[in-house]
Amino acid sequence: MAIQKILFASLLICSLIQSIHGAEKLRLFKELDKGALDVTTKPSREGPGVVLDAGKDTLNITWTLSSIGSKREAEFKIIKVKLCYAPPSQVDRPWRKTHDELFKDKTCPHKIIAKPYDKTLQSTTWTLERDIPTGTYFVRAYAVDAIGHEVAYGQSTDDAKKTNLFSVQAISGRHASLDIASICFSVFSVVALVVFFVNEKRKAKIEQSK
Amino acid sequence: MAHNHSNEDGSIGTSLHGVTAREQVFSFSVQEDGPSSQAVRSDDPTAKFALPVDSEHRAKVFKPLSFAKPHMRAFHLGWISFFTCFISTFAAAPLVPVIRDNLNLTKTDIGNAGVASVSGAIFSRLAMGAVCDLLGARYGTAFSLMLTAPAVFSMSFVADAGSYLAVRFMIGFCLATFVSCQYWTSVMFTGKIIGLVNGCAGGWGDMGGGVTQLLMPMVFHVIKLTGATPFTAWRFAFFIPGILQIVMGILVLTLGQDLPDGNLSTLQKSGQVSKDKFSKVFWFAVKNYRTWVLFMLYGFSMGVELTINNVISGYFYDRFNLTLHTAGIIAASFGMANFFARPFGGYASDVAARLFGMRGRLWILWILQTVGALFCIWLGRASSLPIAILAMMLFSIGTQAACGALFGVAPFVSRRSLGLISGLTGAGGNFGSGVTQLLFFSSSRFSTAEGLSLMGVMAVVCSLPVAFIHFPQWGSMFLRPSQDGEISKEEHYYGAEWTEEEKSLGLHEGSIKFAENSRSERGRKAMLADIPTPETGSPAHV
Fold first, then answer.
1. Of A2, A59, A74, B528, which has the highest C-beta tally within 10 A?
2. Is the dihedral of CA A70, A75, A80, A82 positive or negative?
3. pLDDT > 90: what percent of chain A?
4. Which residues partner with B370 through β-bridges?
């Protein structure tokens, strides 16, 4: 009986947590003020078919209040600039999916910089970090209010996310020392086994011949 | 004549050591230390062993906290080797969020690699029986550990989806240690307790799939702290399971012993070797429809468990926005439940058999597997973290207990082909895992949550065939045992595996003794009506 009560209580608590959880997070992307900021990106190397190298190439990013502006400009406190996946890099990869619910949205996981809001033109030069995966990207800047909720945004590409994209090639992550260590351990493993095997067979032969 | 079938492998001429605690072991006919391929006539007193032993020098007592040579040492070396292999096979799973960024993998690539990781063992498990027979359990285990260690290290070289899949496939071969571990405990422990021993070895080894979900993110984190970038750190993290494998291999070779009396190569082989014909053993295994029912059932209990080991960490990471570390902890709880869940399943099966006979075993198997599958459906539908964790824990207990309960039924399906049937069942687990990963987790057609629920539905449906397992002497879930005087005898069922010619040569005597002892599967009512059969642990040494 006691167990049933405990189970029921825990189920009740779980569902309460669920409802609280749910109430908080229904902030949607389409409610944000679109195009409030003008964002431009200039990669260190440009040209047709150029692929930027993670860890080496840089992006020169600028942002400022756009001509369209925003009704909620007074709420802007911080501008968060993020690196975002373009649609070609989201195909067959549900962990990068675009959701309208801001909490679930996985389009822009890579943080570039966060600066307090300033009406004048802001810029930064950012080196592509070494954990950026291979893919096609654009840059988006969110205007965030005092409690950390997004209010408006601007991005370096159009609404369909087709223009002005750039490609990045990730580092391989391989290392010569790692390769060598790997080979050494592998060889040791096989050789040790063979040595044991041959040794025991030899001992058995000696025993038998006795 | 001596018939030697291994506990859990698919090869000929390997020792039969009964798999449940209830049957007696009759590997040899009447003589005390009868001829066999792997035991020796010993005149030494059995006092030299730390544990009480039977006439074959197999331990009669299971003391999990002891490391006494050779029995308990073999047990611990065996299950820890199996545990290490589980760690290696599923080491990639908790690191997939990093690996998929490094190698630019799609969901299809990840799913296919998951299928590959469990497919290799289908073949290596079937082959391991022969290896243990020829070279002994030590070398079987050591081969598995030390020859797949290079595959683990070669994660350093992986650069794209193709090489990732190939490496995971090759690492997967080491799951054959399941067979060598069960084989080793079978030669070391007597029939009465072998059920519990094997259940513990199997369950504690399976725990590796849970521990790896904790271990790998932790190792990854520590390596990152030393300054490595994520895309290098995950490669280096694979050195830990690799080194563990080498260490365990060396420990097995130096500290372990093939048989209670010594190592295979240094023991003198005495007496005639009488191995059963592989073709016969194979034919009787394949002809028995119950083998295939068990194949499918294990595919949806162990198979589901293997699949979850591959997908659950990524599922929690993606769906609930957890850190790699936290997702790993939750995923680990799934595998860790094996510590008690699988032995519990075996125990529940034994208790059900005591009360209701084989029919009880079958009902318990169906109930545990179906309940587990229902909780899997719930897991896929849970949209909040606490409910998902609760569903996952209940799901893990149900499914893992079903694995234990299944091996309470398997030993009775055949006596002649026990080893091969156990090996086929084990391979069925891997096969089921490959199928579920291919269907539900390898494309973007279903989200992972949908995949989990659909897998649960498929498991419920594929657990129904338990109802078709019918033993003429004991009945099935819905049918009573046969009323016919001849067919309702256990001897008839087990004797049917031998031709008249073989019977005239007395080859089937082991089966007859087994049949006598399996009368306990009639349940309490029938047992009270019968003359009680002797329940001594050692063979009938006259």
1. A59
2. negative
3. 55
4. none
Tokens (6 digits) for B502: 């073989």
Tell me, yes or no, if A78 comes closer than 8 A to chain B by beta carbon: no
3-state secondary structure of B41: coil
pLDDT beyond 70 at B118: yes
Domains of chain A: 29-169 (2.60.40)
Contact A92 B448 (CB under 8 A): no
**Chain B residues close to A183, C-beta within 8 Å:** 153
Residue of B14, B24, B5 lying closest to B497 (CA atoms): B5
Question: In whole angstroms, what is the distance from residue B322 CA to residue B217 CA?
Answer: 13
The answer to whether A101 faces chain B, any CB pair under 8 Å, is no
Q: Given an 8 Å threshold on Cβ–Cβ distance, is B100 in contact with A93? A: yes
For residue A106, the SS3 value is: coil
Inform me whether the C-beta atom of residue A10 falls under 8 Å from chain B C-beta atoms.
yes
Neighbouring residues of A12: CB distance < 8 A, sequence distance ≥ 6:
none
Identify the helix (H) or strand (E) that includes residue B462. helix B448-463
| A127 contacts chain B (CB < 8 A) | no
Instruction: State the pLDDT at residue B5.
Output: 37
Return the residue in A20, A83, A93, A103 with the most chain B beta carbons within 10 A, the one to mutate for interface testing: A93
Query: Buried b vs exposed e over B265-296: b needs ≥16 C-beta within 10 Å?
Result: bebeeebeebbbeeebbeebbeebebbebbbb
DSSP assignment letter at B458: H
ipTM: 0.84
pLDDT greater than 50 at residue B366: yes
Q: What is the pLDDT of residue B148?
A: 96
What six digits make up the tokens of B105? 């993998």
CA dist., res. B312 & res. B213, Å (int): 9
Query: Residue B157 has which token pair?
Result: 């070289």
d(CA B359, CA B467): 10
Residue corresponding to tokens 């990152």? B224
Which of A182, A197, A202 to probe the B interface (max B CBs under 10 A)?
A182
Query: One-letter amino acid identity for B36?
Result: S
Distance from C-alpha of B520 to C-alpha of B315, rounded to nearest angstrom: 45
Element spanning B200, H or E:
helix B194-206
Of A18, A193, A196, the CB nearest to B387: A18
Render pLDDT for B236-249 as a digit per residue (tens, 0 to 9). 999 999 999 999 99
CA distance A45 to B149: 43
Angle at B149 between CA A205 and CA A177, to 5 degrees: 120
CB contacts of A208 in chain B (<8 Å) are: 268
Closest CA to B178 of B69, B110, B84, B102: B84
Which residues 6+ apart lie within 8 Å of B126 measured at CB?
A: B9, B10, B423, B424, B427
Q: What region does A4 belong to: left with phi over 0, alpha with psi -120 to 50, or beta?
A: alpha
- What tokens appear for A154 in the block? 């601007």
**Tokens of residue B155, six digits:** 């994660």
List CB contacts (< 8 A) between B143 and chain A. Answer: 193
- Cα angle: B112, vertex B113, B115; to 5 degrees: 65
Question: DSSP E strands: which ranges in B170-227?
Answer: none
Backbone φ, ψ for residue B54 (5° rounding)? -90, -170
> Residue A110: phi, psi to the nearest 5?
-95, 120
Instruction: Tell if the CB–CB gap between B246 and A17 is shorter than 8 Å.
Output: no
Residue A131 touches chain B, beta carbons under 8 Å? yes
pLDDT in tens, A26-82: 888 888 888 889 899 999 988 888 899 999 999 999 999 988 888 888 889 999 999
Q: Which residue of chain B has the CA closest to A168? A: B104
Q: Is A185 close to B447, i.e. CB distance below 8 A?
A: no
Q: Does A97 touch chain B (CB under 8 A)?
A: no
**Beta-carbon separation of A131 and B243 below 8 A:** no
